[in-house]
Amino acid sequence: RARQAGRGTARFFSPQMEAEAKRQAALESGLRTAIARNELSVAYQPQVSLDSGNLLGMEALLRWHSPEFGEVAPAEFIPVAEEAGLIAAIGEWVLRTACSQTRRWLDLGQTALRVSVNLSPRQFHHADLVALVRQALADSGLPPAALELEITEGAVIDDIDNAVAVCRALKELGIKLSLDDFGTGYSSLSYISRFPFDKLKIDQSFIRDIVENPVNAAIATAAIVMARSLNLTVIAEGVETEAQARFLRARHCDAMQGYLYSRPLDADRFGRLLAGDRRLALAADEEAMPTLLL
Ligand code: C2E
Ligand code: MG
Ligand code: MG
Ligand code: MG
């Protein structure tokens, strides 16, 4: 088709586009065997109370170490997995891994820990989602209240009635629901109030320059006020500086997640963090080095 369209669209065949298409195809074939070959892992990023500094839980973040491509970012491979019809299997693997790992940490005495797992739009619309979550809870023995699912607006905006029904069914399992990347989409009060969300996550794009940019400061402040008025807890993602944390604390944001406290950690490191050895957990890894040691 591109060829028929003539010279104007020749960029379809530019070397760069071709390289990109090749990479996508190679990523796709790599992803097909990634689970079986043990190339996937889950990293855990702490979520902490802005008031007390207490650890509230962690977000499970998928990692892929490909022998061919090295570390591939989820922002690149999750869309490939969605396109290739691989997201159901990969998503189930993440959910089960995060549930069993969290169960083991609970068994070590971490009674107040909650793990949140991301759902891509296609996973959210999968007919078996509720049964899958129920099964993952049953098989792992994780109490439902210790699981939270993160959903983006993109997953719910197209068919709100159906999305509300799915969310209600998920909530009936006893789990928590959060709205991820808040502020990047439609973000209307009237539709959000229809959903049984427990938590709002303010997108990191607003947090990044919250101290210098009055527009983003206003958006973040409005999001906090809105969340409170809807009785939702509110967490800021991508908090990297003490100044950002102070700003959020002053506006009664509940919690934060970001490099200021910790980067996402592999399960071993996260376990060490839980065991109370924050320095050991974080300092062994340059990458994981926080800006501040609390
Ligand atoms: P997200 O759910 O919004 O996750 C937060 C992202 O922000 C993570 O990127 C995390 O590493 C990054 N982050 C956290 N704190 C900071 C900070 O202080 N500064 C900066 N610059 N970044 C920070 P990551 O792990 O690369 O994941 C990117 C996205 O990929 C996630 O965004 C989520 O949409 C998706 N994703 C990750 N794991 C999964 C998964 O298991 N399933 C699905 N469906 N999507 C996933
Ligand atoms: Mg998320
Ligand atoms: Mg997010
Ligand atoms: Mg995001």
UniProtKB/TrEMBL annotation:
Taxonomic source organism: Azospira restricta
Signal peptide annotation: none
UniProt domain EAL: residue ranges: 24-278
Name of the protein in its database record: EAL domain-containing protein
Superkingdom of the source species: Bacteria
Entire-sequence positions represented here: 558 to 851 of 978
